Known about the structure:
Order of helices and strands: HHHHHHHHHHHHHHHHHH
Radius of gyration: 28 Å
Structural class: mainly alpha
Number of domains: 2
Strand content: under 5%
Amino acid sequence: xxxxxxxxxxxxxxxxxxxxxxxxxxxxxxxxxxxxxxxxxxxxxxxxxxxxxxxxxxxxxxxxxxxxxxxxxxxxxxxxxxxxxxxxxxxxxxxxxxxxxxxxxxxxxxxxxxxxxxxxxxxxxxxxxxxxxxxxxxxxxxxxxxxxxxxxxxxxxxxxxxxxxxxxxxxxxxxxxxxxxxxxxxxxxxxxxxxxxxxxxxxxxxxxxxxxxxxxxxxxxxxxxxxxxxxxxxxxxxxxxxxxxxxxxxxxxxxxxxxxxxxxxxxxxxxxxxxxxxxxxxxxxxxxxxxxxxxxxxxxxxxxxxxxxxxxxxxxxxxxxxxxxxxxxxxxxxxxxxxxxxxxxxxxxxxxxxxxxxxxxxxxxxxxxxxxxxxxxxxxxxxxxxxxxxxxxxxxxxxxxxxxxxxxxxxxxxxxxxxxxxx
Length: 423
């Protein structure tokens, strides 16, 4: 095939034009379904092709102003079309969204022509999703309270303002304290927990106990265990529901720890992931065997869990993580890995995240081996399970305790077996 002839005719740029056309058709297809929109399939396709052609001409003539002029012309025409609508035209869509979509479509078409075709297609899909799920997104926003939005903004500050400003160097004894690394762990924990919290607020209690447990485990398995122990104590009819939510939340904790290991120290997955998987399978089997009733008819209640992205919670975790990291490094130097195991047992009583992340950090520094890291996590899990069973017994009563013991005991036993087999 004579590629030189294609280049001479300009047809070597045809794939980019086709990509731009598909972007316009994708976004336009969604707008075509909206009876109040004054731009549909053909308009969006033409606008995307206009963006691609403008980008090509701007490159050929070395005149970037061509893009700005044509973009302005497209925007003015769309605004004028809405401004001069007839009196009987529905006013559900004042045109702002469609005009913004037109401008975006133009720019995505231009991106497709300038070497960013894959990114442009991905963004086009995102734009289409945003347009199509207008009602769902609006309903979700209305379900969030002011304090939730404030906490989301706080998470944005924690992630995009504070983190880049912190120094990326080791301080303190043993070089164990790296401010940016410590804060990145805060961002990781807050991000995962915030996602579960927002989902829990949006979904509510009407979608089932297992989903409540899944989301509660993402936010805080300890808080979820405490909340549903109280519900079961208040109303014995909620015991079955409490068992389901508590069991699910504590099984999700194992998945959560695996994700943290994959993000922070992927090299540990070869040892840690099979151990956590064994614990997960054992816990699921124990729950399935012990389930005696269907909870579908029981009243569901969303646990009252504070937003994990609030600044005081983030600062508390940063202080806890730094203390565990420093104490683990000191004891590891003083008495070897036994010191880390002691810290794991003590800190694991209330929180597994801090000791897991600090152990992953020490593994990265070469202070701990893979086996020592895994053993520390298993010890922390065991201490945490014992602490939660204490909460269940004291707060929820003997019946709930007997129902929850098999699942949490199976998790610990499965982790121990996994440690012996895989590590």
